[in-house]
Amino acid sequence: MTTLRLSDLQLVLLSAAAQRDDGSLLPPPDSIGERTPAVDKAIKSLLRRDLAAELDTSDVNGSLPTDRDRLIGVRITAAGRAAIGACQEEEEENRASDEPQGKAPPVSKPPSRPASKIGTVLSFLRRDEGATLEEMIAATGWLPHTTRAALTGLRKKGHSIAKGKRGDTTCYRIATEA
Questions:
Q1: Residues of the chain with pLDDT under 50
Q2: What are the boundaries of the region Disordered (predicted)?
């Protein structure tokens, strides 16, 4: 299976689009800020890779620059959702909505997997033995610098992350909860 390499900007654009009802990549989410040439370049790359598709739109803010007769909107495709793992979440939601409404909900079971990659990192950090950087990278598919940035983000959110050694390898764990 070929692994797609997406920039952080592309990941943010696809994630925001997957959360929108219409699947639009535009306007960019607040975390990105104003629309810049870098955003347009990232969108064009997503279009070339079939992770996004052009559609006619009437929304001036959510359109790409094009000829004046027509506005082009950009929506996430199924391949785009698959690239960020959004398909699996939608399938679970659809399965839940397909269940008969008259039945009582099943007894709650422990979740089979955390809801997000940062949730996965937190579950690893909560273990008694903690987690190595390599374990977190393997579990999330992130690059080392992205994983370290996630640890910094958790610290900024108030998690106390202790750093220790497991043999010769650096190990991280949650010392106290936020």
A1: 1, 60, 63, 66-68, 87-92, 94-98, 104-105, 107-114, 178
A2: 86-116
Cβ atoms of 120 and 112 within 8 Å: the answer is no
Place of tokens 């909107």: 73
Domain 8-86 sits in CATH at 1.10.10.10
Please state the length of the chain: 178
pTM for the full predicted model: 0.45
Tokens of 37: 């040439």
Residue 146 tokens, joined = 């992205």
Distance CA 38, CA 168 (A): 41
Parts of the chain belonging to CATH 1.10.10.10: 8-86, 117-176
User: Burial of 89 by CB count in 10 Å (0-12 exposed, 13-18 middle, 19+ buried)?
Assistant: middle
pLDDT at position 54, please? 86
Tokens representing 13 are: 């654009």
Assigned CATH topology for domain 117-176: Arc Repressor Mutant, subunit A (1.10.10)
- CB-CB contact of 38 with 10 (8 Å): no
For 116, the 3-state DSSP assignment is coil
How much is the pLDDT for 35?
81
